[in-house]
Design goal:
This protein is α/β, with parallel strands linked by helices. Helices cover 44% and strands 16% of the residues. Strand 1, helix 1 and strand 2 form a beta-alpha-beta unit. The longest helix has 15 residues.
Length: 154
């Protein structure tokens, strides 16, 4: 990666990137890999559902385009995720006018990304979503470390 401002993460977090435009998908997927995420790619919502239905895959965030060919668009995919994988975050990316209202009904208001998007901005949103879901882990770890006479817990 040539951008030295990218913050690398040591992560086992998995991002499902759903985008029908191949070049856009390749760029954002590679950028997120370079940031340290495990990335799975899908060309449309139908492919994404095949991935999401595999119970052995632990996906943390679905980053999906709104307008895609196939039997489902990004909104329908987000609705499926909300109903079937309630702990999973979804970020909707799109430039369609109806995207704002529909996305706010399906996702946290901070989880909508206008197109064209900046890859670093997408990375920042993902990082914030993942951090907001894990404050308990950090608090517990801090408590354990203080109780262990100053040494880190192994």
């Amino acid at each position: 990666m040539s951008d030295s401002s990218v913050e690398l993460v040591e992560s086992t977090d998995t991002i499902l990137v759903v985008e029908d435009e191949v070049l856009i998908r390749l760029v954002i997927a590679q950028y997120l890999r370079d940031c340290g995420y495990r990335v799975i790619e899908a060309a449309n919502a139908d492919e994404a559902l095949l991935v999401l239905r595999k119970s052995e895959l632990d996906i943390d965030v679905v980053f999906t385009d709104v307008e895609m060919p196939g039997s489902l668009d990004g909104f329908a995919l987000a609705q499926w995720v909300r109903s079937n994988r309630p702990g999973m975050d979804v970020i909707l990316a799109g430039s369609v006018g109806r995207a704002v209202q529909a996305a706010s009904d399906l996702c946290d208001a901070q989880s909508n990304v206008p197109k064209p998007y900046d890859p670093q901005g997408v990375h920042d949103r993902i990082r914030r979503l993942l951090a907001s879901r894990r404050p308990g882990k950090r608090d517990l770890q801090s408590t354990l470390e203080s109780a262990s006479l100053g040494g880190p817990v192994q």
